[in-house]
Design a protein that fits this description.
ATP hydrolysis activity, alpha/beta, 313 residues, 10 helices, Rossmann fold, plasmid, six-stranded mixed β-sheet, transport, binds adenosine-5'-triphosphate, 29% strand, 2 domains, four-stranded antiparallel β-sheet, 36% helix, Alpha-Beta Plaits, ATP binding
């Protein structure tokens, strides 16, 4: 299999701010065309990592290599886009803000106007193009910041809380736009976020930081299957069959949890066996109304990794 080039490598990076160690021996790398979810509690060091990668601050020790070479201040702006890279001009319109930004990057005018039109339409904000930014809602301003970051077709796009202020529909749309964008432009994305729902469908890789240290890093699917090496199934059956079914299931499997819900019994069991065979066996042996495989999520991975109890599933 062909090796995918690395866009970013951090090796034993350390950083103290005001005599406090905020980044502790952080090492990881990121392949071209992947989306990395950078996660961690408040104060874990996500923004500091982003500031280090973009050379806004310098590490005390360790190596940060972007595009296979040490960060080069002269090409950084052409190749890396950061969503929170400076405020928008509140007294200017969306169009004027984007035009000025494109001008900084010397994007040819006709090309820039086409890009603005495409992106604002994709983000469903075209009709507000001539509205002053100061009159926009928080979510709309957020869209403009993301559009601005995409204008330059960056090789590396860094998003810090991109879903902040976005409504549920826009969060889904953003996920779609970013996954399509990565495929079309071979862009690599680092996304620091607290919005964990649905991350497994967008993030190729996950990195969880805590107190400046990497707690977990790897491919999302691999991390989830490492964390839950067994298959869990929800077995739905009528209440009258519950006791008999439960006897059968506990005799044959490791039943983790069972519950009633009106006339449905939900049983969660764990098995290391091939799940399609297990499903077929159960359906054959007892009266069931349905069996579903439990898919674990990045949110569960996050809570399990950090050893924090999840309040809501
Ligand atoms: N300018 C600063 N002066 C002092 N301490 C700082 C400064 N910037 C960051 N820190 C400290 O560095 C640590 C990491 O902060 P950072 O902003 O990187 O965390 P974060 O993971 O992005 O948090 P959040 O999820 O709240 O945005 C925190 O303990 C923070 O107090």
């Amino acid at each position: 299999m062909e090796d995918i080039p690395l866009i970013l490598t951090l090796s034993k990076v350390n950083k103290s701010i005001s005599q406090k160690k905020v980044i502790n021996d952080v090492s990881f790398s990121l392949e071209k065309g992947k989306i990395l979810a950078l996660l961690g509690p408040n104060g874990a060091g996500k923004t500091t990592i982003i500031r280090l990668i973009t050379s806004l601050i310098e590490q005390d020790s360790g190596v940060i290599s972007v595009f296979n070479g040490d960060i080069n201040p002269s090409n950084i702006r052409q190749n890396i886009s950061v969503q929170n890279d400076g405020n928008l001009y509140e007294n200017l319109t969306i169009f004027e803000n984007l035009k000025i930004w494109g001008g900084f990057y010397e994007i040819p005018e006709d090309h820039l106007e086409v890009k603005i039109s495409e992106l604002t339409s994709r983000f469903e904000i075209s009709e507000r193009l001539n509205s002053k930014v100061g009159e926009l809602s928080k979510g709309m301003k957020q869209k403009v910041l993301i559009i601005r970051a995409l204008l330059t077709n960056p090789k590396l796009l860094i998003l810090d809380e991109p879903t902040s202020g976005l409504d549920p529909y826009m969060i889904d749309l953003l996920t779609k736009i970013l996954t399509e964008y990565v495929k079309r432009h071979e862009t690599t994305i680092i996304m620091a976020t607290h919005q964990l729902l649905g991350l497994e469908s967008i993030a190729d890789d996950v990195l969880i930081l805590n107190k400046g240290e990497v707690v977990v890093h790897g491919k999302t699917t691999q991390l989830i299957s490492d964390c839950w090496p067994t298959v869990e199934l929800d077995v739905l059956s009528d209440k009258e069959n519950f006791e008999n079914n439960l006897d059968y299931l506990t005799a044959n499997f490791n039943v983790i949890h069972s519950s009633f819900d009106i006339n449905i019994t939900r049983i969660m069991l764990e098995t290391k066996d091939n799940h399609s065979r297990v499903i077929a066996d159960i359906a054959n042996d007892i009266p069931v109304n349905g069996i579903t495989i439990v898919n674990h999520t990045v949110k569960e991975l996050y809570f399990k990794t950090l050893g924090v109890e999840q309040i809501y599933e």
